[in-house]
Amino acid sequence: MLDLHAPLRPKRKKQWVDFLVQFRWVVVIFVVLPISFTIYFLTYLGDIRSELKSFKRRQREHDENVLKVVNRLKQRNPKKDGLVCTARKPFIAVGMRNVDYKRARHFEVDLSAFRNILDIDKESMIARVEPLVNMGQISRVTVPMNLALAVVAELDDLTVGGLINGYGIEGSSHLYGLFSDTVVAMEVVLADGRVVRATKDNEYSDLFYAIPWSQGTIGFLVSADIRLIPVKEYMKVTCKPVRGNLKELAQAYADSFAPRDGDPAKVPDFVETMIYTQTEAVVTTGKYASKQEAQRKGNAINELGWWFKPWFYQHCQTALTRGQFVEYIPTREYYHRHTRSIYWEGKLILPFADQWWFRWCFGWLMPPKVSLLKATQGEAIRNYYHDMHVIQDMLVPLYKVSDALEFLHNEMEVYPVWLCPHRLFKLPVKTMVHPEPGFELHHRQGDTNYAQMYTDIGLYYAPAAVLRGEEFNGVEAVRRFEKWLIQSHGFQPQYAVSELSEKDFWRMFDGELYEECRRKYKAVGTFMSIYYKSKKGRKTEKEVYEAEQAMLESAYAEKTSLG
């Protein structure tokens, strides 16, 4: 996948932590995988038990749990207790960043009971779910009904709450936008204990638009109504090899879902591109197909969900040698195609896990839970990954993808690279992430009058310099990466490790609506500000308190001047 020859940088001296990382697979095999499998199985049993309950009973239990959250908030003494956060352990998050803010004094609220599907309304095409419902759970219920969320994030463990409060994307996002764009309503517990329902056109519309990307720093999301779409039993998947320079690869990617002649019949239901080297990529597109079509004579069916099957990204890579091919994959198995290998991170975690013998004998244990990987890595390995490993997504306008790929190749040289398009809608208010001003005047490829086409460029691997044993400064590389993003009107999802200063954070994101809602709904002084929640490193109580006081003082000054 990478050019590991001719060294470009000085050789790096190996340290003791290199050997811990090299042999970490021992801990993963004998500790992480068995415990992960047990947790997955017990969680599955819990989900089945929940599904046996009537929707009416689930709703009653939900209302009781919401009341517990309200009562818990009312027990807090702002002068003695710390800022409010969930009772979830710091390492339990699907992302590279550890939840360091919980190391400071804080007031915990337990949301662990909120993991039920409350209703599936086939008439209004709405799923009402609690925040800890994950993608594997919801797809297991809806797909047999020939229904699905409009955007189903690929990894099973990703939760509704994380995808709304943070960000979520999938191969259908070129049609429907980010995960939060498919939300119709949110039920939120505010800092003062009020429970409100926010929609785009009611009295809490500002809250509705402010919550996405806020990382739970405005209120507690306790349920969401999410849009459903009709689906078919199979996905007709086409894997097309592409060769050329990075600019040509980027153009082939754009043409795969945004045809230059504007023919809507050429727009696929799903699309992603995986760039394997600086000159080779595979464009993958999908169209929903019926069971009857898939089972026609001569059609190839790939039941990807079996534990012994080759990993999806490696399966697609065979198009570079065998040429373009078409196959039919069961819809739910296609949705979660990257789960077992965690995209291609599984290759770094367990270098032999993609081999046929491991897949057949132990593939049923995959994947390891990300939370357990983080819990067992220790401070030294954690710091090593921050410096020698890249897990980043960058959201950039479609027309800047080729420039971004050139920049990333020169700075990090991480392959494979994942490309996934998404619409960024022009909304009635300016949210934390928003299209470029006046984008609709340029009529660029993929854009419409109501949405600008963006692309998520995903980097999830070790840089080539690290694999060659050369020096690599991950901190400086990420800083240059973030600077480029700010200059290019791009955005960095907050699950990743960030080096942004507070000033640069608010240059990347628009904070006006966010701060307005924080003050209006009394989140300031109750919930930690998003920058301090996302910031790398330990957060001291003093640091957080001073930041919150500065915000309160500025809010008071503003109110006084208006008065």
Automatic annotation (TrEMBL):
A single MF term (Gene Ontology): Delta24-sterol reductase activity
GO term, biological process aspect, one: steroid metabolic process
GO cellular component term, pick one: cytoplasm
A Pfam family: FAD_binding_4
Keywords (A to Z) from UniProt: Membrane, Oxidoreductase, Transmembrane, Transmembrane helix
Membrane spanning stretches: 21-45
Membrane topology, record value: Single-pass membrane protein
EC numbers: 1.3.1.72
Residue ranges constituting the FAD-binding PCMH-type domain according to the UniProt record: 109-231
Signal peptide feature range: none
InterPro entries cross-referenced by the UniProt entry: Diminuto-like, FAD-bd_PCMH, FAD-bd_PCMH-like_sf, FAD-bd_PCMH_sub2, Oxid_FAD_bind_N
Subcellular locations according to the entry: Membrane
Name of this chain's protein: Delta(24)-sterol reductase
Protein's organism: Dioscorea cayennensis subsp. rotundata
Taxonomic lineage from the root: Eukaryota, Viridiplantae, Streptophyta, Embryophyta, Tracheophyta
